[in-house]
Design brief:
By secondary structure, the protein is an alpha/beta fold. It has two domains: 232 residues, Rossmann fold; 264 residues, Rossmann fold, CATH 3.40.50. It contains 18 helices and 24 strands. It is a peripheral membrane protein.
Length: 517
């Protein structure tokens, strides 16, 4: 099936999200739509999927003009879409989610047997390994995404739109998704792949169309260099490496000793963790998602009740303190899931920028908020951190994922910090914004702030780390230097100790203040 957009424009009032977009997706092709956060990619796909009506322009399927009043029309035309934020009912089974909206009956009763059979057929064909009777909320994120793909394939989609599909995936899950995309192409289906991740785009795409500020600015092949693609995306040369001087660490500021966390089911999620971070250094925690990194960050912040051991910041014990007290001690926190733990979607950009500051005298007088000061603060932060938003009064949920992340970063770096704790700080963020966020993190380090980064992106770990702690099954397999080869880190992430993997331990850490002579 050939899909074509001709001069498609979408406006919201005076704001133009897409302008005169021309795009052709050929049968059996992986066509990437590449652009920075807020470029208009998702808006364009929502137009194509019938969620928005275009202000102007035409959509053609196999040369015939079509008009979609809703997603049902798009699906009937052979177009399926997997949204960045999954459209699944968590308490339903896989089969129930797949059947939802396209229910079949037998004798007046819901026929889930046919749906289960179709799920198994598609799962076996593409190697999905999805159980039709599994409850969705119990499935890993990568498997939930496969459920979304199965939903589209059950409905005979010939063009599959994947909107930022790797934003919430681990590196391994990402590689598996790219393999699935190749299989879809081999079966004659087309994939419209929306992304800003240059490695993935170059690895899997047949054609790359670049969109910037709502307009197509070029079309190229995957042979284009990452530097060329990055420049097309953001309209300027972008440094793909982090410019930073060698760290000059001072005294130990954060000291984690014997930290263990037990889950509600009694299973140990962290097991006797010992780590320390000095002033003026970045310690990056590496590991496959689900090996205790999330629990480490939550324990430091005070979100884990069943935690034992010690977490001391400049001699003050944080373990056992409520979250508000931990934040008051000068801890800046960037959560791994911004939509759940970092933002209130229905609140405005301005309100989200003071979520943990609204009691500050700058923004409140007694029980009353100083709305003018909150708005002034938002305007400054939006400009400083280049947050792409129609207004500081816009609900934050209307922003692209990368711009939502900038709001979180802007808020957490808007006050003096004694510790910056950031989990997946650039998840779902484009190359231009990654460059900016990395610069801000390094600037905090250079101001003497201890920085603890958790990231599943090895490129990010290598770019930022002064030392690297590798986690496996809730334990620290070793702390090594940033010059450790990837294959060695890979062995440690799979369960080898630093000694077994042949890694050289990181340099000795500076003493803590109480150990000074």
């Amino acid at each position: 099936m050939q899909l074509e957009l001709q001069s498609v424009t979408k406006r919201f009032g005076s704001f133009t999200a897409n302008e005169d977009i021309d795009l052709v997706v050929e049968p059996g092709q992986i066509h990437c739509l590449l652009g920075e956060n807020g470029a208009g990619k998702s808006t364009l796909m929502n137009v194509l999927y019938g969620l928005y009506r275009p202000t102007a322009g035409r959509i053609l399927v196999d040369g015939a003009e079509v008009s979609f009043a809703g997603p049902g029309d798009a699906m009937a035309a052979g177009i399926g879409m997997v949204h960045q934020h999954f459209m699944l009912v968590p308490v339903f089974t896989v089969a129930e989610n797949v059947a939802l909206g396209a229910e079949t009956t037998r004798g007046g009763a819901l026929d889930l047997g046919t749906t289960r059979r179709r799920i198994r057929e598609i799962s076996e064909r593409y190697g999905f390994h999805v159980d039709p009777d599994a409850v969705v909320e119990d499935l890993p994120v990568g498997v939930q995404q496969r459920v979304e793909i199965i939903k589209a394939l059950v409905r005979e989609a010939q063009v599959l739109i994947l909107d930022e599909p790797t934003a919430v995936l681990t590196p391994r899950e990402t590689d598996e998704l790219l393999a699935i995309m190749r299989q879809l192409r081999a079966s004659g289906r087309s994939v419209l792949f929306i992304s800003h991740k240059l490695r993935e785009v170059r690895e899997v795409s047949d054609v790359i169309t670049v969109i910037r500020r709502g307009r197509v600015v070029g079309q190229t092949s995957p042979e284009a260099s990452t530097a060329e693609l990055a420049a097309l995306m953001v309209g300027r040369d972008v440094s793909l490496t982090v410019a930073k001087d060698e760290a000059a660490p001072g005294e130990r500021a954060l000291e984690i000793s014997g930290l263990s966390v037990v889950g509600d089911d009694g299973v140990k999620l962290l097991d006797d963790v010992h780590l320390d971070v000095a002033r003026g250094e970045i310690l990056a925690v590496a590991g496959v998602q689900g090996n205790g990194q999330t629990e480490l960050a939550e324990a430091v912040l005070g979100l884990r009740e069943r935690a034992t051991g010690s977490v001391r910041l400049d001699g003050t014990e944080l373990l056992g303190l409520p979250v508000r007290r931990v934040l008051a001690e000068g801890v800046g926190f960037v959560p791994e899931d911004r939509s759940t733990d970092g933002l209130v979607g229905s609140f405005t950009v301005a309100e989200n920028l003071v979520l943990d500051l609204y009691r500050d005298d700058r923004f409140a007088r007694g029980p009353s908020l100083r709305l003018g000061a909150i708005e002034d603060n938002a305007r400054r932060r939006v400009e400083q951190f280049d947050v792409r938003t129609p207004s500081v009064d816009a609900p934050v949920e209307t922003l692209s994922g990368g711009n939502q992340q900038k709001v979180v970063i802007a808020r957490e770096l808007s006050r003096p910090l004694r510790l910056l704790l950031a989990s997946q700080p650039t998840r779902g963020v484009d190359v231009g914004s990654i460059e900016f966020i990395h610069e801000q993190i390094v600037a905090e380090r250079d101001r003497g702030v201890p920085v603890l980064i958790v990231s599943t992106e090895l490129d990010e770990v290598y770019a930022l780390a002064d030392r690297i702690a590798v986690f496996f099954h809730g334990r620290v397999m070793g702390v090594v230097g940033p010059d450790t080869p990837r294959d060695v880190l890979g062995q440690m992430m799979a369960g080898a100790t630093a000694e077994e993997a042949g890694a050289v331990p990181a340099r000795a850490q500076a003493p803590s203040p109480k150990e000074q002579p």
